[in-house]
Fold:
Amino acid sequence: QVRLVESGGRLVQAGTSLRLSCAASGRTFSSYAVGWFRQAPGTEREFVAGIIWSGGSTRYAESREGRFTISRDKSENVVYLQMNSLKSEDTAVYYCAGRVGSGSQYVARFPVEYPDWGQGTQVTVSS
Structure:
């Protein structure tokens, strides 16, 4: 059974940086895609970025490309989300999600396409 555990969320000032981690366990991740999503109160869960575990190809939500960077450490089974120049509107619970697949098409933008989810980590950006 796949287990995804997010960490790194906290209260930060606007304009600063934060790196979130998603530790994965429970299976072989050679054919796996991981996505980061976020959900602010009263809003739908939205796609932030995703990565293919084996080849490392990435995909970003258009509004986040440039400030956010997704990466993975295959040796540690961890996927990171580096967030720079944080804004108050980045405040949300951030989730990592996973699904089996090795092609870039598996970095899906819709939460329903991911069967595996972590519990989330809260990021609060104060202005």
